[in-house]
Design brief:
62 residues, rod-shaped, mainly alpha
């Protein structure tokens, strides 16, 4: 079974989510904006985490 580096996904998600929340200007509907930021942060972390897992995967072979 391959070992994934789950920390890559978590770090990217927290960074993108945090930067998105910091950039919120007081709008009328916080819930929709936070939901959008959450979804976009998940997508970005999925892509970046997968790329880093592929780039830095273990070179060991049986």
């Amino acid at each position: 079974m391959r070992k994934f580096r789950w920390l890559d996904y978590a770090i990217v998600f927290v960074l993108v989510f945090g930067l998105g929340i910091i950039n919120i200007v007081p709008p009328a509907n916080y819930a929709a904006i936070v939901a959008g930021i959450t979804v976009s942060a998940m997508l970005v972390s999925l892509v970046v985490g997968t790329v880093t897992n592929l780039v830095f995967r273990s070179r060991k072979r049986n």
